[in-house]
Design goal:
It is built from 20 helices and 16 strands. With 561 residues, the chain is of the alpha/beta class. The protein folds into four domains: 59 residues, no CATH class; 62 residues, Orthogonal Bundle (434 Repressor (Amino-terminal Domain)); 245 residues, Aspartate Aminotransferase, domain 2 (3-Layer(aba) Sandwich); 134 residues, Alpha-Beta Complex (Aspartate Aminotransferase, domain 1). It is globular and about 75 Å long. It binds pyridoxal-5'-phosphate. The site of pyridoxal-5'-phosphate (PLP) has 13 residues, from helix 10. The site of pyridoxal-5'-phosphate has 13 residues, from helix 10.
Length: 561
Amino acid sequence: MGIVGSTLASTSAESLVTAGLSGLSGIVLSNSMKGDATPGGLPLQGRRVAVVKLNLTRYSLPMNCAERLVEMFGTQADVARAFHLDRAVVHNWVKTGYVPARWAGEVERVTTGRISALEVINEASAKNPVRVKSRPEHVPFGLNDESDPMSQYAPSKRIQSFHPPQRTLMGPGPTEIHPRVLTTMSQPAIGYLDPVFVEMMEELKSLLRYVYQTKNALTFPLSGPGSVGMEYCFVNMVAPGDKVIVCQNGVFGGRMLENAIRCGGTPVVVEDKWGDPVDPQKVEDALKKNKEAKIVAFVHGETSTGAQSDAKALTQIAHKHGAMVIVDAVTTLGGTAVKVDEWEIDAIYSASQKCLSCTPGLSPVSFSERVVEHVKKRKDKIHSWFMDMNLLFNYWNAGTRTYHHTAPTNSLFALHEALLLIREEGLENAWARAMRHHLALKAGLEAMGMSFLVKEQYRLPQMNAVRCPEGVNEAEVRKTLLNEFGIEIGAGLGPLAGKVWRIGLMGYSCRPDNVMLCLSALGSVLSDMGLPVHVGDAEAAAHGAYAQMHVKDAQRKKRAA
Ligand SMILES: Cc1ncc(COP(=O)(O)O)c(C=O)c1O
């Protein structure tokens, strides 16, 4: 028996045979609904031939997520069982051709990632875009009711619901957000004193202790961005007249200086070149000259330059001279090693939108016992009510929880999920991932003739500052990347404006597909602008770097076995 004229995959043809069509001289698979196909032009007379009519256009369409679920689990009833749902719900998914976005996280979990949450969300938003009509279609502006006095304040433009485009975020933050985090964020609201929320907060604090590698009791997320974390440290720790050594080697050291001044402190600035790390010797010299200095403040990873300073060495020097440290770990936490207890860091803050890959607006902070005692002993009132450690402690402490401010509950759900993802991946694996993709990105950028601002040993893998090629309109390059490829990379700040690009590999954005897309798009844009860049060289170099890393990994595994 032969199977002829088939344009289907062989498995489909085989299944037809096993389905009882054996013994025939030939099976004609036809996508003509008239069934008039001949088997490859062979004469049919005198032979038993089954003509199987197929509408092949149906088979050429990719399956939607609902259909894939049914294929994966067997029947709609099996899908319903796997999701603990009524069959009618699954039937409706299949009938409408999509799985509603609210099920995205669950689909990814139940299918162990074979269908990603993002696929579900994208398909659902394409099939059923959210449309909120603020007013009837035929009325162009507001209620158009002259008797309604409030209409005069209505916007003059017709406003629709906001739907941001899908971007590849490879700048200095914010980063892309894992679908699990987005799904968690859209869970129903609950009160901030609800026992369920209180329990979640305790878990959140323990997850933060894990990423900070600390046992500090006072470790919690402040409601506000990284700048709030910075201000919280200064406002609690610096009393008017206190001498503060502030290290400045980029934008954020400058912001620390501003904070020290605004708290009434007397700052002593230790300056280093933008792109260099903080020089421990200069800090030691400053402490020797200013024996009454109580605090040394520095940025662990300068986002404006991509330089990493030695937080452990700087802390040791400060302690040797009796000072405490305030450390900015906004860009480093979750991307490179931050070991609060081992390095004996006194006060540290970070932000949710960098390597933690959560939505912006939360700032995890941690104070050691020494700092807590220092703040409690202050005779003057802390100059900020909102950031007063003593008041916040009563809110974040499970035993004494009382109202302080309305916590951003859904953002906190999201941070809980983002930290859980890091816990599941393993902190060291997250650091290794940043390094791995940095090495591939570096190989690609160098293949296009670009060089790094920071010396290799001080480079942050998650924040790559590269010099823009001579003669290129750097703003035009970033604009084209965004408009044509949907990729965002960062511009240079301050003295580096127009001179560098800052390419981030933070959190969920730190992935091989992003590295390859970024290199490919950059190569294409630069060569289009007439630069001597050979399209494809960067990708080849990055693939080469990945291959070398695979070989090394395999060798390491073999040695360990
Ligand atoms: C090192 C550093 N510190 C502080 C901040 C301020 O954080 P935010 O913008 O969340 O207020 C940033 C922001 O990029 C940063 O990179």
